[in-house]
Fold Leucine-rich repeat and WD repeat-containing protein 1.
Amino acid sequence: MGPLSARLLMQRGRPKSDRLGKIRSLDLSGLKLLSEHLDPKLLSRLKQLQELDLSNNQLETLPANLGLSHLRVLRCANNQLGDVTALCQFPQLEELSLEGNPFLTVSDNLKVSFLLPKLRKVNGKDASSTCSQVENLNRELTSRVTAHWEKFKAALSPEEAEKAQADFVRSAVRDVRYGPESLSEFTQWRVRMISEELVASGGIQVREADIPERPPKATAAREPRAKPAALKRPDDTPLSLSPNKRVCTSSSSAHVEGSDGSQPTLEPLHFLQCHSKNNSPRDLETQLWACAFEPAWEEGQAGATSQTVATCGGEAVCVIDCQTGIVLHKYKAPGEEFFSVAWTALTVVTQAGHKKRWSVLAAAGLRGLVRLLHVQAGFCCGVIRAHKKAIATLCFSPTHETHLFTASYDKRIILWDLGVPNHDYEFQASQLLTLDTTSIPLRLCPVASCPDTYLLAGCEGGCCCWDVRLDQPQKRRVCEVEFVFSEGAEAAGRRVDGLAFVNEDVVASKGNSLGTICLWSWSQTWVGRGKQSTLAVVVLARLQWSPTKLAYFSLSTCPGEGIVLCGDEEGNVWVYDVRHILTQPSPLPAAPQAPTQILKWPQPWALGQMVTKTMVNTVVANPTFTYLTALTDSNIVAIWKRQ
């Protein structure tokens, strides 16, 4: 498609007219338009244009001077847009569609709300909740920039003050921080604007909320949730930026048992009901299954994580900022029940040849499908029909960003290569290996010291190991070794429902014996293998845990901190500091080691309702042990912060 012409605009405009100035609605969708094809001189002749459809093109930017001051509806879905600041030229805009622009982020959504004061709908949804979020962020940023100004000014002499104004703007952008990392682009953008306004006024006045007043609106309608349909597959509902219900925010310290005062204090920060059926606060039954912190993919930050966590349960996957408790994204798949989530990052090349880094979240569950969610842009960019039965757990390879293990109730573990999405953001996944199990696999764990060689799995029938080297000819393999945790009369075959490496060598596992978590050495165990198909683990220590007979309480670790975590049936979180075991292994003590801390569930908490009993079935912390997220069987996401 070449540059636009007046004849084309009259052909595709409504009402039909031989004068551009009378056209009120214009459809330019699907023409493969590039940004340079939008001629401002031509389009500015559309004096009465109120509705413009530019969807399904190849636009990377919008020209800044289109002259469409009366535009009320703009559709730009399925393009290559990477910036939204040019939208400020449409002050009358009420409806906007930006779906399918994979390089727009949640920060861009907030910019849209700030730039367009009359906006009522974004991507077909009410914009009022996002506007409220922007106003809260703006108020806090204004306060912080003003405080920074006072501190900055106090350090200057009167002669230096005038010359230092530009330095202040740079200083504010560098030093003023607030909110989640995923919103840093928006917050730095606003900090620059606020600080420049402050400097321009001579430091006398800065508006607390530089957002034009909007007409009052009704509260955003809650999105209904469809009942599961067994016989047909409903369309996936796209991610929403609407924040979900916060049950409560607590500033009081959690009740801690077993702490000697030298351990860091963990305080409950947020309790969220973001997976509720029909967003009902009365829903205390939706089961939450898994959560995972988003790694920090930036160069030089290996092993670090952001404060963003993904949770799954029921038909929803939520992405939450732990500091603020804001649900950044919510993805729904009616009829699904999500059991597992896992993160990776991919480098993709745009049609214009630009490289972009994507955070991709894989989610799977009851229907045997793996959904690949482009979190920043907010849509599902791929579905893999991985298994005929439910998928119990997912795990990305730590060394190959496109390699994904899926473990299913069909007693198979499959290694997939997702590949890199094409220009239409579609994945072409291929199957690399199939690993057969004798029982249902529950947890997956690549061996930390050789992740490309061996994979561990905790299963209903025990703990097994497979050779996963891709240079071997067999593409379908059976378990090479089954690990035995009991000595003497007790045989192998006990359920292992918790499995994670504490460091390069030490494995934490749970489920093989009541009331304990086992720490064992991979290297010391493996060196004695020989040709055996059953191998007794070399136990380094046992950790005291709940004596419950209930199963499927998943444990997790913070390898950099030497921490092991596990929930229980009473709503407690058991915290173990095992650094002394990792650094100076001693003979196996007769009695299990007691937990370093036990975090007690605060009650009452849920909207005035007393929850007399809840189980914490999953607990995960980021590697720096700054934030801890716990999931319950009563539909509550609990977030704790180390003080």
About this structure: Confidence is low (pLDDT under 50) at residues 207-255, 299-303, 488-492, 604-610. The radius of gyration is 27 Å. The CA atoms of residues 35 and 59 lie 5 Å apart.
